[in-house]
Amino acid sequence: MIVVMKLDASPQEVDAVKGRLESLGFKIHPIQGVKRLVLGAVGDRKVVSSLNLESFPGVEKVMRIMKPYKMVSREAKEEDTVVRVGNVEIGGTKVVSMCGPCAVENEEQMLHIARVVKEAGGQILRGGAFKPRTSPYAFQGLEEDGLKMLARAREETGLPVVTEVINPQDVELVAQYADMLQIGSRNMQNYSLLKAVGMTGKPVLLKRGLSATMEEWLMSAEYILAEKNYNVVLCERGIRTFETYTRNTLDISAIPLIKSLSHLPVVVDPSHATGNWKLVAPLAKAAVAAGADGLLIEAHPNPPEAMCDGEQSLSPKNLQRLLWELKPFLKAVGRN
Ligand code: PEP
Ligand code: MN
User: Domain 83-332 carries which CATH code?
Assistant: First the structure.
């Protein structure tokens, strides 16, 4: 339920409404808009009708949210959310490029690609230190050593870092090094992990599950917001279909659809969506044209030698070219 407060509602009037709802077991999420304060209240809807909240001084109107996801919905918040990662804003006028290797392999590789990303105009550095691999025998990541290499690359370039966490027990450790926590596709419905990253208050990049519907994806985001962490960015990374020539199928419609259903920023990962570096640039352009707030792009100093996902990784030259070629597309949609 959404309680819209009047423009001139006093702090005492706001506290009275909050107090009443909290005494009935509601969790309150205050949302300060440009003009007015809205109180998101999540709890037992059976008691709502007997509450008569409209009669409370300072209350303008009360609205039920019919969708199963509440705080992530546009009904709860009309204005677009802007998530700050270090000094970078996602969801504002700039389209943010988050680039780097699939996995952190060693310090030299990480520093090399970090310099390339910085020079090409990328704003956030990515790299996996904990890798959720399909095979238990594949490289699983450098773990804390990898996190240290990411931190070192951030120190040198000033680029904030996004990296994946795959386990609730590791959230604290990863949060010490990362500016943004990534929840991978395979973990989109790992609810204890979602709660754990929610509790850190750190920005979260929530990837869409391999076969997740929009509603399941938004419900996962709701888990994070329910912990009062509103810094969530959604990432479309392709879904499972019958097609085998691409690793996944990029669901471009997810961008405008999510934007109509939710106030959260949406970024697109054309690397995992296609599994083929040659398809990354055209789909990155399509994503920008469809309104994406950012791109997550895998890049490696030497893709054929990459320990993981080399086939879909851009070389330094190709990354530079793509970020340059995106400019007219950004301009066409009024972004930069
Ligand atoms: C990744 O970004 O490295 C990754 C493993 O992606 P996904 O979870 O989308 O497969
Ligand atoms: Mn990868």
Answer: 3.20.20.70
